[in-house]
Amino acid sequence: MYTIAIANEKGGVAKTTTTTSLGACLAQLGHRVLVIDLDPQANLSLALGMESANISSTVADILISQTNPNAIVHHTSLNNLDLIPANYQIGLADRYLPVQSSYEYKLQKYLQQYIDVYDFVILDCPPHLGAVTTIALTAADLLLIPTQVEYFSVYALRNLMDLVRKIRHQTNPRLMYRLLITMYDRRNKIHRILNEHLHESFNSGLMNTIIETDTKLRESQIAGKPIIYHSPKSRSSSQYQALAQEILEYVQET
Amino acid sequence: MYTIAIANEKGGVAKTTTTTSLGACLAQLGHRVLVIDLDPQANLSLALGMESANISSTVADILISQTNPNAIVHHTSLNNLDLIPANYQIGLADRYLPVQSSYEYKLQKYLQQYIDVYDFVILDCPPHLGAVTTIALTAADLLLIPTQVEYFSVYALRNLMDLVRKIRHQTNPRLMYRLLITMYDRRNKIHRILNEHLHESFNSGLMNTIIETDTKLRESQIAGKPIIYHSPKSRSSSQYQALAQEILEYVQET
Ligand SMILES: Nc1ncnc2c1ncn2[C@@H]1O[C@H](COP(=O)(O)OP(=O)(O)OP(=O)(O)O)[C@@H](O)[C@H]1O
Ligand SMILES: Nc1ncnc2c1ncn2[C@@H]1O[C@H](COP(=O)(O)OP(=O)(O)OP(=O)(O)O)[C@@H](O)[C@H]1O
Ligand SMILES: [Mg+2]
Ligand SMILES: [Mg+2]
User: Fold this and answer.
1) What are the DSSP calls for A196-240, one per residue?
2) Which pLDDT belongs to residue A52?
3) Which carries the bigger pLDDT value, residue B210 or residue A202?
4) Does B215 touch chain A (CB under 8 A)?
5) Which 54-93 residues of chain B touch chain A by CB within 8 A?
């Protein structure tokens, strides 16, 4: 079982879009995938056609109230792709969790039961470096950082790198990370300049795959389906499939 | 003194871009403006040329540690535009504030001293409906909600409307709100459709001004200057100036 946390403090950099698309691509290749929504906005749950109003048990029941409900993992309409949904309650994590000792390990402990059940677990984090992102990074083998080639987005990497250092010291020494450039617009001069700048600063820390802007991704979210089912011929479908291949090669080498 | 909170749980919808641009437009018209950065990402501080590494006192000193430092308000390089900066410490608010009774009123109380000093106070909120956004909405006369015409962005309005109801009941009955459509791309069919949909659902709750996509806004942020100084002839300059006029008319009517 290989756990990937998708995190970035910056908002709107395609964390949820990447979790949905990458999860679906790995599932399509036959791997058993569990995606977990850790965001009170519940966008991942929406993107997979699941409205939080209809759900009685969510990720908050694992991390906050610990009622250990049976019906928390949902099969999505896609083969090999399961989901633990979220709703607004996970937004209360910062209030209730940090006072508990070893709260950082809650998700890692919960996931032990799935070691032979899933090949990949992907965690969609909220735009906030709080208790939930700490828990996700403690449970993860790899932190994948979707980043736009925009000034604020690149600046956000500082706080995130501080957190990575802290996590490696305190709760998860094995954590690796990779940047993934998203929403790239090759006609945009600023994008080309910041792309070079990121390659200079991060070099081998960057995925080779770049995800370019594609309006079909937005359409697929309205339809509640991953891009590879909604628009299999779209550019973003091929790019997310290339990302899945690159992740598989990375996992096999490490 | 009229206080405007700029909030939305959804990430990357132009909260910071709107705070910077609207604040600068009102200052250019001769109004005395204080903008307050409430986000641990400190993007507003960056957009006004102020790096959080160089700042010793931040908004966290008002809301969390309460050291009441003298040097907390900075003059920006623009006439009539002052800034209270942020850094990562304001991200700890959810842990420390909700346990304090009446924490919701901290900013409102702090701002009393400026009633005759500033005409407008604008609050840039983080993408998270926690203690900080609650404090901002309690202090505000108007909640301005930048929203993209994208599915997840529109969906985020639900949680936000719940919070507005709660705030009106508990801590601030006078709170009004308006939606502001941002990053609008008129060539995008989905944008046109969701724009109509928002107009049907919110009608008079929408600002008339719409802010369209303009790559100059991104360039101005790299330069650390508001758009009306960086690219005064750009489309987004005129649109944010129109927004400032619309806000002034709204304030005079209410
Ligand atoms: N490659 C792309 N091309 C075009 N639009 C995209 C692309 N990737 C994501 N988007 C759109 O950008 C918006 C933001 O994406 P998304 O919600 O996945 O970001 P996020 O980082 O999860 O945001 P948040 O910080 O709020 O959780 C969505 O409306 C999404 O449809
Ligand atoms: N009208 C626009 N046209 C083009 N780009 C824009 C526009 N408005 C904002 N942007 C860009 O979109 C990105 C997100 O904007 P911004 O950081 O202001 O959003 P935010 O809501 O404050 O994000 P966060 O939730 O992370 O605080 C920035 O890179 C900004 O330069
Ligand atoms: Mg998301
Ligand atoms: Mg912002």
Assistant:
1) HHHHHHHGGGB-S--PBP-HHHHHHHHHTS-HHHH-TTSHHHHHH
2) 64
3) B210
4) yes
5) 88, 91
